[in-house]
Amino acid sequence: MLRFMPVGDSMTIGSAGEHTWRYRLWQHLCAAYGGPFTLVGPRETLHDPSTDTPTSYAYADPDFPRAHLAGWGEGWCHMAPLIGDAVRSCRADVLLVSLGLIDLGFYTNAEQTADNVRAFVAEARAARPRVRMAVMPVIRNIRVDADETFASQVAHFNELLAKAVADLDDAASPLLLVPPPPSYDFHTDTYDGTHPNAAGEHKLAAAFAEAMWEGWGLGGPYAH
User: How much is the pTM?
Assistant: First the structure.
C-alpha cells in the first residue's frame, strides 16, 4: 500500500463545496497507478468560509480518501514542526507539498522560508528515512501582479527552493521539484485570484501527476 500525504495551504485544504486537487489526483491515480494506494494525513476537513474554521466535510464528492495535512493560512513555518509526527503516525511514503505563499505573504522572507523547507525535509526524514517528497514552487497569484516586493520574494524563494531540492535530493529519500502547470493563469484557473476553481484543481493535480510519472515512473500521464 503506497501512502500519499498532501501537505499544503488553502489551495490544498480547499473550501466547502469544492472537489479539491486532492480529489482530482486521487481519481488520476485510481486509473494510472497499478497497485494499492491511499491518501493519508491527520486531517480530513475543508475550510468553512461561513465560520472561518476547518470544520466542513461538505466535499463536492466525499467518496474518496480525504486525509491530508493542509490548513487555511498555513505555510512551511507551520508545517515543519508538524510533519515529523504526521509522517510517523500516518506512515506516509510520498509527500505532495504545495506551500510558501502564506510564508512569504505574512511570516518570513525568501531565505527564512527556504530554511524552513530544509527543516521540514529533515523532520520528515527523521520520522521515515525513505520518504519521498514532490514539492511545488509558489504559484503566481493576484498579489504578485499588485505587489512588486512580494513578486520578487516569490521569484527569489522559488530559486532557493530549487536549490534546496537539488541539494537535499537523495537516492534513499528522493526529492522532486514539481514544475508549476505551464498554462496555469490565476485570472481563469482560480475563483478569487488565488484559490483554484475546477480547471485549476485539474492543473495542480496534473502537475504532481506528470512530475511523479516523469521523475519516478509512478502512475502515468494525466488524462483530463
Answer: 0.97
